[in-house]
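Minutes, project check-in
Item: structure for the 187-residue chain
Input as provided by the requester:
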Amino acid sequence: MRQNISCSGFTLVELLVTLTIVAVIASITVPSMDNFIRQSNRHAAVSDMIGLINLARNTAIMEQQTVTLCPLDENGECGHDWSGTITVFRDPESDKILNDATEVIRVAQSHKGGDWIANTASRPYFRFMPTGIANYAIGNMVWCPSSREMNSAAQLVVNRGGRVRVSEDNDGDGVPEDNKGHPITCN
């Protein structure tokens, strides 16, 4: 007595068609995922820096004393390298030097995936007075992604009143413009 045994499975053609479809979907998805990661890094870096700037300004107002935001060098003085650790501290002498560790309000690491470049004239800091005004320390900061693709860059502008805003892309080319209407750059 013979039994009919039915075997089911994929044919070679069905398997090749399925693999082709998966390859096409992957080739479309991977580049958009890379862009999503770059934009997420940008958003996180910008949000964190806005938070630090607002913390410095609000602390200056609430505690009625000068507060400085900057990267510190090995001597506790404000330096120019914004790609590492950034410190918000009470600066009662307004000398841009952290003289006492108890004056530290917050220490933050710059985000991976890019660097901040501060354009604060010749000053490597943002300083907020007890009124909240960014006295002698207005300027902007540019987030430059590691890829240096300017459509993933961002610019923060701190005005004299101590308020921060994000520059916008007004001409639709994907790159935010500075206050003169020129695309921001990562120099």
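Outcome recorded: Residues 125 and 155 are 16 Å apart (CA to CA).
No further action items on this chain.
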